Amino acid sequence: MPTTAPALGDVTASDSTLRRFLHGLPGVDTVGLEARAASLGTRSIKTTAKAYAIDLAISMVDLTTLEGADTPGKVRALGAKAVHPDPTDRTTPSTAAVCVYPDMVATAKDAVAGSGVKVASVATAFPAGRAALDVKLADVRDAVAAGADEIDMVIDRGAFLAGKYMKVYDEITAVKEACGTSARLKVIFETGELSTYDNIRRASWLGMLAGADFIKTSTGKVAVNATPANTLLMLEAVRDFRAQTGVQVGVKPAGGIRTTKDAIKFLVLVNETAGADWLDNHWFRFGASSLLNDLLMQRQKLATGRYSGPDYVTVD
Amino acid sequence: MSEKTDKTEQQRLSVFKTYKLYVGGKFPRSESGRVYEVTDSKGKWLANAPLSSRKDARDAVVAARKAFGGWSGATAYNRGQILYRVAEMLEGRRDQFVREVADAEGLSKSKAAAVVDAAIDRWVWYAGWTDKIAQVVGGGNPVAGPFFNLSTPEPTGVVTVLAPQESSFLGLVSVIAPVIATGNTVVVIASEKSPLPALSLGEVLATSDLPGGVVNVLSGKTAEIAAPLAAHQDVNAIDLAGADDVLAKELEIAAADNLKRVVRPQAVDYSRTPGIERLTAFLETKTVWHPTGALGASGSSY
User: In this protein, which residues make up the domain named Aldehyde dehydrogenase (chain B) (predicted)?
Assistant: First the structure.
């Protein structure tokens, strides 16, 4: 990592300085990264540690529904589930947030009112991000006005891949401004479309320089979503960014995490890479929907000693 | 395996078979990595078989649940065709099963052959029942109103079967064929002492159009694997054919928690024609009322 901390203020001064900085980031050792992610995935987490990890993971879930067929009823049901994931066991923690499209924010806000569960909204022409900046900003303002606590924006991958880093940077800062002080901003890179680990590292730094509160792997709408390797890479980025600037940024892997075992592997990555400071739902989230049911079934198994089944958790 | 040491074969190295579980259409080793020694009736080593753990049982239930929708939704005729195909495949590997049954149960070649033939015939017999059971146990009920009232048998769901301990092949076929004939999916725990015919049956099922997960074969200590399955909330029924009295009682108590259907162990002579008790044991009756249509001026819709 670059060690010239004060210089960070200047890197966004112009397109060329930004490019020089991003391309000056050390290249990623692909084999080493994947081996490290795989070896951390072999840890055996049992009994009390497992119980702790399951409750922590539940509290980190951004319970998500992003379908064209979302109805107000479905969003209300999701909100109820976020507040009390397992109604038969009130010791189950609530999830961190529900994540919906902007037009469902008001409905979701009603559904989780008074519970401490946040409402996150995707915005900026999610999931493609192919719209004019004005349209994207209007999308964000709309969601914020409806009461969204968190905005999940997508970056313009086309501009990023074409090397127009400043355009991406300006867009993120504009969206950050539109979020105001009330909403935290999560920036989605769609890592599955960025092709290389080097690009993921560059995108992570670009997002953090532009003021992201969270960096998020993916939309869940493409073939490759969150993987242990790309999440590990982003965790290294937030760790180094805090070391250099003192600013802590959160990480949210999204899409493709379906089992408790997977979720626990990600928590091991967090603990071993970024550190225990990130083991909190203010700094780490899972973007998921089916994961929660598996976490609940595992929780029931630990509590009762017998295997549970999908008949004992809500269908969503 | 009883390797023949003919003079002609003496130059060859023996090719030992690795017996593996059959779960979800695949052949995994036990998740635990454990195996145990299987011996013939005289105590001579035959092979190592996987010693399944509760996690193998859990995975098998997941596979069986996944397969249930497709299998129970297949037409009865189609299920019959597939089960007949299984019998065809069994016929093709008859010699292997004769050898395994002879080793496992200490029978002469000719007695073992008779047992295997009976098992194949039984499989065919159950294949024929798939599209006939509904006529026998379902039907139209007379009701006092302008309704059709129809009862149809529906499969129970995921069934755990403890295969008979003594009859390692004919007994096994006699307990799993009726369960899947009616559209259930099954997790079967092979005979603890002689699991090899059951594990070989998995290889037959894998090559006979039967969708993966409809039958899942586990080997190991019956009591160890059966306990988590009896308590499993996603298992709908359990057949205790291979349990002794003490184990059966324990399992029945565990099974009561989510109201599983339980078939208690009973003395069965598997060489005799079975009747349809095992077919109907894992069926539930669905009754549907349907209006016959608007009443005409005469007070009848006919």
Answer: 31-263
